[in-house]
Design goal:
Length: 201
């Protein structure tokens, strides 16, 4: 079975936490590859607060360049207007063989906020969800929501309990703004890119 993992996000900036989640999902679910999809104009975020789309895309490319299983999809970056995940999946379905299974990877917190997603029922019928949760983090709430989705929608949901890296893009931006080092939080090439362009100052 051709299973392709998908991780979406603003990646502002991408960091080792994102990369570690991708690696865990790749190994645990025997995925063929992981697609990183930087968001273009997400409906639930103010794009004025985001770094330029091309800079976020370039940082993702730098972060994954040494892993042959990690790929970058720039569809949302160049798509005009609001970018919805379901439309991105429909575009990918045109590009990949018909038998491809798309495995959409989410952290527990993002999964708990899925109810407002556009055309949620249709989206859940098009992908399998992989929920990556820390073993101690909101376990009961996650399991309760999974049960609810399985009762109300046609969906396939898998859960991976693993200790991930406690790194946030917000904290990285704050460190950079305050003039402190972000070394060991993200790939060196991404750190260099941020410094060269003066991002987050």
């Amino acid at each position: 079975m051709n299973k392709v993992g998908i991780i979406g996000g603003s990646f502002d900036p991408i960091h080792f936490g994102h990369l570690r989640i991708a690696q865990i999902a790749l190994e645990e679910q025997n995925l063929k590859e992981i697609l990183f999809i930087p968001s273009g104009n997400p409906p639930h975020k103010n794009t004025k607060d985001l770094s330029p789309a091309l800079d976020r895309l370039n940082m993702v490319k730098l972060a994954v360049k040494d892993n042959s299983y990690f790929k970058v999809c720039d569809y949302e970056i160049y798509e005009a207007g609001i970018t919805y995940t379901i439309l991105t999946i429909k575009e990918l379905q045109k590009q990949y063989p018909k038998e491809t299974v798309f495995s959409f990877i989410l952290g527990a917190d993002a999964f708990l906020d899925m109810d407002e997603w556009k055309d949620l029922e249709e989206f859940l019928s098009m992908v399998e969800l992989i929920i990556l949760s820390r073993s101690y983090y909101k376990t009961s709430k996650v399991e309760e929501k999974i049960k609810s989705y399985q009762e109300n929608y046609s969906c396939n949901i898998k859960t991976i309990y693993a200790k991930t890296l406690n790194i946030s893009a917000t904290s990285i931006r704050k460190l950079v703004k305050s003039g402190k080092s972000v070394r060991y939080l993200l790939p060196n090439d991404v750190d260099d890119y941020i410094s060269k362009l003066g991002l987050y100052k």
